[in-house]
Amino acid sequence: MTFSTMVGELAHAFINTFLIFLLTLIGSLPLGLVVYFGKKSRFKPLKWLTEVYISIMRGTPLILQIMVIYYAPPLLFHVTLPGNWRFSAVVVAFVINYAAYYAEIYRGGIESIPVGQYEAAQVLGYRKTQTFVKIILPQMVKRTLPAVTNEVITLVKDTSLASAIGTIEMFTKAKQIAVSPRSPGMLTFLVAGIFYYIFNVIVAFGMKKLEKALDYYQ
After folding, report:
1. pLDDT tens-digit map of 16-41
2. d(Cα 184, Cα 173) in Å, to the nearest integer?
3. Are 189 and 170 in contact (CB under 8 A)?
4. DSSP state, 82?
5. Which residues contact 186 (CB under 8 A, 6 or more apart)?
6. In the structure, what pLDDT confidence band is assigned to residue 216 with cuts at 50, 70 and 90?
7. Gap between the Cα atoms of 9 and 28, Å rounded
8. Residues 103-121: what's their mean pLDDT?
9. Cα–Cα distance, 127 to 138 (Å, whole number)
10. If you ran DSSP here, which 8-state letter would residue 42 be given?
11. Per-domain boundaries in the chain
12. Is 213's pLDDT higher than 50?
C-alpha cells in the first residue's frame, strides 16, 4: 500500500470520526441541561433517578457503556437491529455519557451565579423561564465554557473508543491498515495521530475564539 493510499483511506474514515464528534455535541450539550433540571427537580423519584444516572455514567468506563448499548438489545430482547446500529450505538453511548458530565458542569456554573440576580429579576417582573433564558443562561455559558472546552477536546480523542465494537472510524481503519499485507506499519498510527492532533488544534482554536467573544470585560 502506498503512502498516499493510506492517507486517503484514513481521511475517508475520518468522516465517521467527525460525525461521532459532531452528533455527540449536538445531542449531549442540550441533554446535559435537561439532566441538570432533572437533578434539581422537586419530584423526588426524578431527582433520585437522575442522580443514579449521573453516577453510573461517570463511574463506569465509556468503552464499557458502548459495548453494553451495542450488545444488550439483541441479547436481552432478542431483536434484530438494523445494519447501521453499530454506529448508532456509539453515538447513543457518547451522548448519554457526555450529557452526564455536562450536567455537572452546568450545575457548577449556575450555582456560582449570585442569588441576588434571581431576586433582582423577580423585582423587575421576570418569570422564572424569562429569568433563566435571559439572565442565567448567558452567564452560565460564559462561566462553564473553559470546562466545556476541556470536555470537547477529550471527546476528539475518545472517538477512537468506537473501535471497541468495530465501528469504522479513523482509529479502526488505522488498525486494519497496520495489519494488512505491505502496509506502512507503525507509520499508519503516526499519520492517524497527526489527524487527531490537527483536529484537536482546530477545535481548541475555535473554542478559544468563542471564549474571547463571550469575554464581555475586554
Report:
1. 999 999 999 999 999 999 999 999 99
2. 13
3. no
4. P
5. 178
6. low
7. 29
8. 89
9. 16
10. S
11. 3-112+144-213
12. yes
Among 164, 161, 9, residue whose Cα is nearest residue 98: 161
Report whether pLDDT(86) > 50: yes
CATH code matching the domain that covers 3-112+144-213, chosen among 3.90.79.10, 2.40.320.10, 1.10.3720.10, 3.60.150.10: 1.10.3720.10
pTM equals 0.90
Q: How far apart are the first and last CA of the chain?
A: 52
**What pLDDT is attached to residue 218?**
46
181 class by beta-carbon count within 10 Å (0-12 exposed, 13-18 middle, 19+ buried): exposed
Instruction: List Cβ<8 Å contacts ≥24 apart for 46-52.
Output: 50/103
Model pLDDT, residue 121: 85
H helical segments located in the chain: 3-39, 44-59, 62-77, 85-111, 115-123, 128-131, 137-158, 170-179, 186-213
Side chain identity at residue 14, one-letter code: F
Contact (Cβ atoms closer than 8 angstroms) between residue 45 and residue 84: no
Distance CA 163, CA 55 (A): 25
What b/e sequence results for 115-138 when a residue is b if at least 16 CB atoms lie within 10 Å of its CB, and e otherwise? eeebeebeeeebeeeebbeebbee
* 40 DSSP assignment: T
